[in-house]
């Protein structure tokens, strides 16, 4: 029966089917190991034991024209259930044209003002402030350095929870990334849902597996020892966080995760702003892959390092496989058109590819919502509308990924302060949800 079916197929249909099975096999090979992460919510989680010591932390904040939001972050740091004598807050007002520096000082932070139009971005700010601390002689006074964006807000237990995991011997620890403005619109919801997946599934799964977790942008601590060993902050690709993660994994520095260390950041609500930000991210992923890909793959297969393999699979293959699938389908349609071949199955396949992808992403989003809904505000039926739009948000990565392959991308600041969730009452409500 099988061979009879093949005999009845057109040549183009056979080629299309072979290609479809090849794409499916590629996804399985690349991502089947993540199944354990996907079901990590059903595995027992052991909270980090209370630390016997409160370590001294320097809080490092890069702020470019962030006067509207910076004060809320600093206030949330002062509201921590942690001895304030063990916390110092350093803000770098980077190329600011507003009163960011004044806000920082008025809220009790130590502020440096930096002006450099050539070396732009958070990575150069981190390099700058660490150099300043070393020059002043204050660097050895700290056990670790916490890195935040100016739009972040911390749950009142964030630092104590990070300290618990830090005290277990991890040189880098990250927390649970939530969103201040998750429900502003479908774009901010898409961001937030993905970040919850990254924290609640992937980093939770990695921690349970004993593998290295990954930092994402903000909300993590780095030990003084790591910065001493590397001679400061030396990671300046467009995604310095991913580059830093790759460096840690390559040098067997295991990154820990504490899901009770919750912090919030603001997501874009404009598609144009989101496009610009994610274009930088994808270009940065490609830069990291180019710089670290060969070394990490060698480590993965020669040293049987799951962390190195996970690092590579988490960021690049999905882009390449999706782009490859798109262009091959276009090529098959053109071959059929110019050779007057029966294209019915290929056209059907072209239609089913995005349809199945949409349904898969929708199921993914719903599953994430079911598992993580306790971290979300109650907006009733509106969740369903945003979940239906989540696959569309993910689809927008497709043109971004193609453009990132060819376009030169520079770092550009993202303006914050347009969120509706910046009042003190909303901050307190966010604290209460995770208390």
UniProtKB/TrEMBL annotation:
Q: InterPro entries per the record?
A: Nucleotide-diphossugar_trans
Pfam families registered for this protein in UniProt: Glyco_tranf_2_3
Q: Is Cytoplasm set as a keyword in this record?
A: no
Q: What is this protein called?
A: Glycosyltransferase, catalytic subunit of cellulose synthase and poly-beta-1,6-N-acetylglucosamine synthase
Q: Which family does it belong to?
A: Belongs to the glycosyltransferase 2 family.
**Annotated GO MF terms:** glycosyltransferase activity
Where would you find the membrane-spanning parts of this chain? Answer: 18-39, 315-339, 345-371, 383-406
Keywords (alphabetical) are: Glycosyltransferase, Membrane, Transferase, Transmembrane, Transmembrane helix
């Amino acid at each position: 029966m099988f061979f009879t079916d093949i005999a009845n197929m057109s040549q183009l249909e056979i080629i299309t089917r072979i290609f479809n099975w090849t794409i499916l096999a590629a996804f399985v090979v690349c991502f089947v190991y993540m199944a354990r992460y996907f079901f990590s919510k059903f595995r027992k989680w052991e909270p980090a034991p209370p630390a016997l010591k409160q370590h001294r932390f320097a809080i490092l904040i890069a702020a470019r024209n962030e006067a509207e939001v910076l004060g809320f972050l600093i206030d949330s740091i002062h509201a921590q259930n942690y001895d304030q004598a063990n916390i110092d807050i350093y803000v770098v007002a980077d190329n600011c044209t507003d009163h960011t520096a004044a806000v920082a000082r008025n809220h009790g932070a130590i502020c440096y003002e930096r002006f450099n139009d050539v070396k732009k971005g958070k990575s150069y700010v981190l390099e700058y402030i660490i150099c300043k601390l070393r020059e002043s002689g204050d660097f050895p006074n700290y056990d670790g350095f916490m890195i935040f964006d100016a739009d972040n807000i911390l749950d009142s237990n964030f630092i104590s929870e990070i300290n618990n995991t830090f005290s277990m011997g991890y040189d880098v620890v990250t927390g649970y990334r939530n969103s201040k403005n998750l429900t502003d619109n479908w774009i901010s919801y898409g961001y937030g849902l993905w970040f919850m997946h990254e924290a609640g599934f992937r980093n939770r799964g990695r921690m349970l597996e004993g593998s290295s977790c990954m930092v994402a942008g903000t909300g993590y601590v780095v030990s003084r020892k790591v910065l001493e060993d590397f001679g400061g902050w030396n990671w300046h690709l467009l995604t310095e966080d991913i580059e830093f993660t790759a460096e840690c994994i390559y040098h067997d520095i295991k990154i820990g995760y504490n899901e009770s260390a919750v912090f919030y950041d603001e997501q874009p609500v404009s598609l144009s702003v989101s496009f610009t930000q994610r274009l930088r991210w994808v270009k940065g992923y490609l830069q990291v892959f180019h710089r670290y890909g060969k070394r990490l793959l060698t480590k993965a297969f020669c040293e049987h390092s799951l962390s190195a393999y996970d690092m590579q699979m988490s960021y690049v293959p999905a882009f390449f496989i999706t782009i490859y699938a798109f262009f091959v389908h276009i090529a098959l349609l053109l071959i059929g058109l110019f050779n007057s071949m029966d294209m019915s199955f290929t056209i059907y396949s072209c239609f089913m590819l995005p349809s199945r992808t949409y349904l898969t992403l929708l199921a993914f989003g719903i599953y994430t919502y079911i598992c993580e809904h306790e971290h979300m505000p109650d907006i009733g039926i509106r969740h369903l509308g945003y979940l239906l739009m989540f696959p569309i948000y993910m689809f927008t990565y497709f043109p971004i990924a193609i453009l990132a392959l060819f376009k030169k991308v520079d770092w550009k600041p993202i303006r914050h302060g347009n969120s509706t969730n910046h009042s003190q009452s909303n901050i307190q409500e966010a604290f209460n949800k995770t208390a």
